[in-house]
Amino acid sequence: MSLPTITTLEELVPELARLANYPKSDQKQIDNFLNLIQNAVRLWIIEQSFYDFNSDFFVEIDQEWFDCITWIDKLWTKIPDVQNKKLEDLLLGEYPLFYQQKWQEQIIARYQLSSENLQQILSSHIFKVTQRTLRNNFKRLAQLNQPKLIKSASLKGHYKKVVSSSLNSLDNCNLIKHNNDIITENNWLSFLNDGLSTIAELLTTKINGHQRFFIQAEYIVPEALQDKVADWADNLKEFWKQSLISPIKIKYYSASKNITNYYIIYPVSIHYSQRAYYLYAFGETPDQNSSQALQWYGYRLERILSLKQIAWDFSDLTKRLRSQIHKNDKINHLYSPDYIQEQLELAYGFSFYREFNTMLLRFDQDYYQRHVKNTIRHSTFQKIENIQEVKKMIIEQIDSEIDNTKKIQREKLLAKVNCASEDVYYKLCYRVGDHNVIMRLRSWGPNVEVILPSDLRAQIKEYLEKNYKLYQ
């Protein structure tokens, strides 16, 4: 089962897009617009009934050519009393509350509706219409730029299903999802890691009318900026649909540098991390030391002030960018979403473009038993079973540093390890300078000691000393 997106509804009823921002000054205009939305949802359900085998609306029609009456009989049998069911009961059904709210918020925002307008839509009986209306719906589906039905030239009022590359998901029994445009239980679960998705898949729908599964994800972007973030994501989605993805030019405020500037970048993917959305892109960055430098960067979506697509021949920089990203008319793997995922797996931290190093950590036995043991963390978070390996890491890393004071530190650390041989030691590959790494170490607080590397140990020590002074 799935929910129709704004894009899908506007493809079915193009008038929605044309009138979306048009002032609705009187009740007649409002009612007309609400009828368009209801009609779009009805068209979508009819389309689902033909092509989405997993849909509650799907009906089997044996004949190649069929008329509207045949379809009505099938649907009325599949969903008894369908004409008296409200739109919200047909469409939202057993969806989690947060899913329902998200879809409703999108409708309100896109079409500038009031809560009362939305309730009027949800309470409507979209199938309490005449056969003539349904026949007109069939005609509409056959007249779309990308037809959903084919009208017979010889059999009056008869149609057949479309079987073409435009509906290329037939083999997967899910034609409607060919543009990845519709939110479904299955594809939203794919965004979660395997451990989360297993439980979520079991409990995503209501049980006896009650939602029993919730995900509390912090999202710190101010409400006033959330629509803008959604707009940027929607723009990027449309760019990524293109066969040849072009670079974009953005105006961006960097909080760390406290500067606003224009950057030409090649957008690759959006990630939710550290309580906000980031656009990972390759090109110019706030961190670059020269105008010639091209590198990776994570841009906070709400800090993008403007965004527009530009051509590859826009400037010498875009031409240089293209020569680096494109390889034999294909995107070089080093600038693909898959590459980013590979880099995230190599080391802990979301700043995958930073260099990585290995840290050595010590947990006391009690904390380890209660909070670390039998937990799944980053793949490089590995327990060191042999205390001699711990000592070897200390000696090798500190001896490589040209600093006599750190040689003294080496002896202190080795002595500490000898006294704490019953404690538990872990090593972790991490991205140097990644904020998420530092926040993870701070959250462990006094329950963990950073032994290596020396600069990270010094950084955590300085933080703890400053924190201590606040409470003196």
TrEMBL record:
Q: What domain of life?
A: Bacteria
| Xref: Pfam families | WYL
Fetch the InterPro entries from UniProt.
Answer: CRISPR-assoc_CYA0889 (IPR023816), WYL_dom (IPR026881)
Q: Where is the WYL domain?
A: 247-308
The protein, known as: WYL domain-containing protein
- Native species of this protein? Microcystis aeruginosa NIES-2521
